[in-house]
Specification:
The complex is a heterodimer of chains A (126) and B (277). Chain A is α/β, with parallel strands linked by helices and 126 residues long. Helix content of chain A is 23%, strand content 17%. In chain A, strands 3-2-1-4-5 form a five-stranded mixed sheet, sandwiched between helices. The longest helix of chain A has 11 residues. Chain B has two domains: 206 residues, Rossmann fold; 47 residues, Alpha-Beta Plaits (2-Layer Sandwich), CATH 3.30.70. Helices cover 34% and strands 26% of the residues of chain B.
């Protein structure tokens, strides 16, 4: 099982980046917590649709779960449709700690999108 | 037929007022004028002219993608090329279109090698016509509420206004743009003969003037400067901007006038002008 953690840096000692669509890096780890790769988020500067772009990167990695702080409605919708589980509400901890919390079942699955706080808050045209 | 834009960067500098002033000036010189309100997000030249938006002469459409699943081979070309990041595809699945993000550009349909993406028309704006006087026609564009990208509306309204102008053999078409330097302003400024850039002698006016002059330069549109409320504020800060862009002088300077403000507030600008000027 592969898991994605949104992060401010490229290793597990980096702090979690609370913004899904506009995070700095996607850390891809296996079920044992081994870092498989760190993908820089090309969508950070997107004028619009950063959440969808991020979701596309994550989906292409065939992960089963995403651990992040906050996720907007568009990304929530498309990840949900891809069968990827979203664990959100994780703030101010290192990626390694977030993973530990996840493994201990301390992070609950996110069932509704949160109001985003990226550049345009994922609320285009509403 | 001369095509003139009225723009200014900053909001509230008097673009619409000057547009109406100019329209009236040209009419008084015996020209036939089409005034085209391209501030499609909040068009209000008609209010300044004491008109009502009743006579709808057309609609503007954008085309949004719809997937034909029998033709789609899930190749992902549309996903990789969408400039609005409005297409998502889970591995091995059909692409999904996120309409809130879609600008209606139609690129996905054009590049699909299997012809699997059809385009469906959706109304994004409306066009109204008012015959204000014998020689003054007003064309107003109005975008649908909540529309993200209004540049295509401007382009659509412009096309119809130009068609009308040719039909009635107009001498002058005035395009009143919105504030700002974004997509709808760019669309309004494209292919005009020159632009009147309205500014005011304030730090905000000067700053936004530099932005719009930069845009005009990029679009190769000749800018003529109109200084509104010229006797208020500090003219020098605006002059500095003109020097930077190598513009020698103000084409017009309009002093502050309570009479204009009064006429403006009452929607009697045209009536007032025909008496006073």
């Amino acid at each position: 099982m592969k898991i994605c953690i949104t992060s401010t840096g490229e290793n597990l000692d980096s702090f979690i980046d609370p913004r899904f669509g506009r995070c700095q890096y996607f850390l891809i780890v296996d079920e044992k917590g081994k870092l498989l790769k760190a993908i820089p988020n090309q969508g950070v500067q997107a004028i619009r649709g950063a959440g969808v772009t991020a979701a596309q990167i994550v989906a292409n990695e065939k992960v089963e779960a995403v651990i992040t702080g906050n996720i907007g409605p568009n990304a929530f919708m498309v990840l949900g449709q891809s069968g990827i589980k979203i664990y959100a509400g994780v703030f101010r901890v290192k990626a390694s700690q977030a993973l530990e919390m996840f493994n201990q079942g301390k992070i609950s699955e996110c069932r509704a999108p949160m109001p985003g706080f990226g550049r345009r808050r994922g609320m285009e045209g509403r | 037929m001369e095509k003139i834009a009225i723009t200014g960067g900053k909001g509230g500098t008097g673009k619409s007022t000057v547009a109406v002033l100019l329209a009236n000036k040209f009419v008084s010189k015996g020209k036939r004028v089409v005034l085209c309100d391209l501030d499609v997000e909040c068009p209000n030249d008609y209010l300044l002219l004491g008109q009502k938006l009743k006579n709808r002469i057309g609609k503007v459409y954008a085309e949004f993608p719809k997937l034909n699943k029998t033709k789609c081979r899930k190749c992902g070309l549309c996903v990789r090329n969408c400039r609005s990041n409005a297409i998502f595809q889970a591995p091995g699945q059909y692409p999904i279109f996120i309409y809130d993000l879609c600008s209606g550009c139609g690129l996905c349909s054009r590049i699909c090698p299997y012809g699997a993406i059809e385009l469906k028309k959706k109304v994004i704006g409306e066009i109204y016509l008012n015959r204000v006087s014998k020689d003054l026609h007003l064309v107003t564009g109005a975008a649908k509420a909540g529309l993200e990208e209004t540049g295509p509306v401007v382009r659509g309204v412009k096309k119809i206004a130009l068609k009308l102008a040719r039909k009635i053999r107009a001498d002058i078409v005035l395009f009143d743009t919105s504030a700002g330097i974004h997509c709808p302003v760019i669309a309004a400024l494209q292919n005009v003969d020159y632009a009147y850039v309205i500014t005011e002698p304030t730090p905000l006016g000067a700053y936004d003037l530099a932005l719009i002059l930069d845009l005009c330069r990029k679009l190769s549109v000749k800018a003529k400067i109109v200084l509104n409320q010229a006797n208020l504020g500090d003219k020098r800060i605006v002059q500095k901007v003109l020097e930077k862009f190598k513009i020698k002088k103000f084409t017009f300077q309009i002093p502050y006038s309570e009479k204009i403000v009064r006429a403006y507030s009452q929607g009697k600008l045209l009536e007032f002008l025909s008496k006073e000027f």
